[in-house]
Amino acid sequence: MRLILWFRRDLRTKDSAILSHAQGEVLPIFIFDPDILGQLPADDKRVSFIYRSVQRLREQLRTIGLDLSVYYGRPREVFESLLAKCAFDEVLCSCDFDSYAITRDMEIETLLPMRRFYDSFLLHPDDTLKNDGTPYKVFTPFYNSFEPLWSSSHLEEFVRSDTMRLMEWEYQSGVSLEEMGFEVQELPEFLSLDPFEVLDEFLPKLANYRHDRDYFAIEATSRMSVFLRFGLISPRQLCNRVRGHDGDAFYIRELYWREFYNAILYHFPQSERENWNGREIGWREDREQFAAWCEGRTGIPIVDAAMRHLGATGTMHNRLRMIVASYLCKNLFLPWQWGEEYFALKLLDYEASSNIGSWQWGASTGADSVPYFRVFNPYTQSEKFDKEAKFIKSVIPELADIDARLIHRENGVQSNIFVDYPSQLVDIRSSRAEAIERFRRV
Ligand SMILES: Cc1cc2nc3c(=O)[nH]c(=O)nc-3n(C[C@H](O)[C@H](O)[C@H](O)COP(=O)(O)OP(=O)(O)OC[C@H]3O[C@@H](n4cnc5c(N)ncnc54)[C@H](O)[C@@H]3O)c2cc1C
User: Fold this and answer.
1) Is residue 308 part of a domain?
2) Do the Cβ atoms of 17 and 64 come closer than 8 Å?
3) 92 - beta bridge partners?
């Protein structure tokens, strides 16, 4: 038996489905695909993170007697060149459900049989149907139906096979980031750590997570999303590590939102671009206002700070994501798809299903989404969750000397003639009322 182990979004050696099912001679590979990379800007932060994670994976594989051959090329061509050198029986890899990945895998399957494992989520969407065989559309019953799963003491993890051995091969380290057309990016510091180290820092905060997680000026959340996205930690490992700590149930419930949105996109693929609820909303299409939102020039300190922070770091706290999404869809009345696309370009933890599901939640067009008449007031939000404006001031230095009370008041900053700060794109109260009226008429 001779197998290719194709690592994709499962960059780890523990609780790894492919390392558990491997036997006989194995060739572990990773492919940087120019068709995916070609769509990204040279300063894409994710590519830097993946690049580093692939190098680490190679080191980890070497410590267990394996190795990793890294390629830069179209998967079909890479596989053809591997097959030209040697005969293989099968490819083992994890499932990837996005439309590009499905087409790519079908192509590879014409060359070599593929065995795919469902390894990036706790539940396969096909196993999450209601008794009547239809998908859940509301989160709480979805979550409740799997309650026995998370409340069991330990989720079984994959154990590494001891019947595989590394193939003799000319193992390649691949080309540099620069050779692939990317600039090395500075990444948030926590991403240079092992995910388990980051998680261990979080565990003492877990008991207060339920309350503190909304305060974006303090570090109260787990920061696991990027690691989960690229599989440096598996959701099973994460559940097992937090279970038994005070506050575990609420945290694991949050992880089920990831599962829920994955099931929604899988069962309703049209919701990738269309409103999940099928309603036609007559969004405005003002590209200038959209550019001001992207660049953090809306004249609303909390929105601008969140967007500038996203641009600079590739990260954004969950509450801030909800605030800027509500502002884009309910105050500027611009299409959620524009916001979703921009997040897809910038977020280090970008996960299509969570991003689309959450954007449709904010736009009141999705599964179990916020009612259309619930519109976040950005000033009330910043006053409640960043009272001293610490986060805002840390991102917008022009506001460093401004009294926090002014920052939390509509047009407050603009009333200080010594500060050079953009005027508000729209009036919060009237734009909110107009949005509610437009939604009501749909
Ligand atoms: C408009 C918008 C877009 C979003 N886009 C993404 C995205 O592309 N990728 C992504 O992983 N998350 C997305 N989220 C969800 C959430 O903001 C992030 O998962 C979270 O901020 C990551 O930080 P954390 O790991 O510290 O979260 P924690 O609070 O520590 O939560 C732990 C884990 O639970 C899961 N989780 C928590 N809340 C959600 C949620 N609402 N939806 C799905 N999973 C959740 C995540 O896997 C997260 O890592 C989005 C939310 C909004 C409102």
Assistant:
1) yes
2) no
3) 5, 115
User: Which residue matches tokens 């976040």?
Assistant: 376
Hey, is 101 helix, strand or coil?
helix
- Render pLDDT for 82-129 as a digit per residue (tens, 0 to 9): 999 999 999 999 998 888 888 999 999 999 999 999 999 999 999 999
- Provide the pLDDT for residue 99: 81
Confidence of residue 148 (pLDDT cuts 50, 70, 90): low
Ligand 1 atom with least separation from CA of 229: 11
Name the region of 154 (left: φ>0; alpha: ψ -120 to 50; beta: rest). beta
DSSP 8-state symbol, 25: E
pLDDT band at 227 (very low <50, low <70, confident <90, very high): very high
pLDDT for 361 beyond 70: yes
Host domain of residue 349? 287-441
Do 111 and 57 share a structural domain? yes
Question: For ligand 1, is residue 263 a contact (CB within 6 Å)?
Answer: no
Report the domain count for the chain: 3
DSSP summary character for residue 413 = G
Ligand 1 atom 2: residue of nearest CA: 358
Pairwise CA distance, residues 284 & 287, whole Å:
9
Contacts by residues 132-137 (CB-CB < 8 Å, ≥ 24 positions apart): 135/263, 135/264, 135/267, 135/268, 136/260, 136/263, 137/264, 137/367, 137/368
- Ligand 1: residue of 261, 309, 349 to mutate (most ligand atoms within 8 A of CB) is 349
How many angstroms does the Cα of residue 52 sit away from the middle of ligand 1?
23
* Counts of helices then strands in the chain (DSSP H, E): 21, 6
When pLDDT is averaged across residues 279-305 and rounded to a whole number, the result is: 97
Residues 271-302: b if buried by 16+ CB within 10 A, e if exposed? beeebbbeeebebeeeeebbebbbebbbbbbb
Residues 42 and 104 in one domain: yes
**Is the shortest distance between the CB of 354 and ligand 1 below 6 Å?**
yes
Atom of ligand 1 nearest to the CA of 260: 43
* CA pair distance 354, 358, nearest whole angstrom: 6
- Measured distance CA(45)–CA(309) in Å, rounded: 14
Supply the CATH number for residue 103's domain.
3.40.50.620
CB-ligand 1 contact for 46 (6 Å cutoff)? no
Reported as a single tens digit per residue, the pLDDT across 318-356 is 999 999 999 999 999 999 999 999 999 999 999 999 999
